[in-house]
Amino acid sequence: MKPALCSAATSTAMTLVAFAAVAQAPDNAVMSNDAILSASVGADRIAQGKVIYETNCASCHGVSLEGQPD
């Protein structure tokens, strides 16, 4: 995998994990970055993060994480 694509994929995976971790917390909870990054998530939460990405992020960042020029 090309370094830029690998970096983008890693960043996206971490973002999806963060979305999933926050979704598990009560609405009024404040989670630290360490708590978000160490949160254990299942396939259902990862799938939910994928839907969030497709709905809110893919229009700019691309469905396949290809990004946009400039």
Note poorly predicted spans.
none
Mean pLDDT: 75
Specify the overall morphology.
Answer: elongated
Oligomer status: single chain
The major pleated sheet works out as: none
Number of helices: 4
Structural class comes to: mainly alpha
Span between N and C termini? 22 Å
Mind telling me the C-alpha Rg? Answer: 13 Å
Number of strands: 0
Strand content range: under 5%
Characterization of the model:
The structure is a single chain. The chain is mainly alpha-helical and 70 residues long. It is built from 4 helices and no strands. Helix 1 packs across helix 3. The chain starts with a helix and ends in a 9-residue tail after the last helix.
Summarize the model shown.
The chain starts with a helix and ends in a 9-residue tail after the last helix. It has helices at residues 3-24, 33-38, 43-56, 58-61.
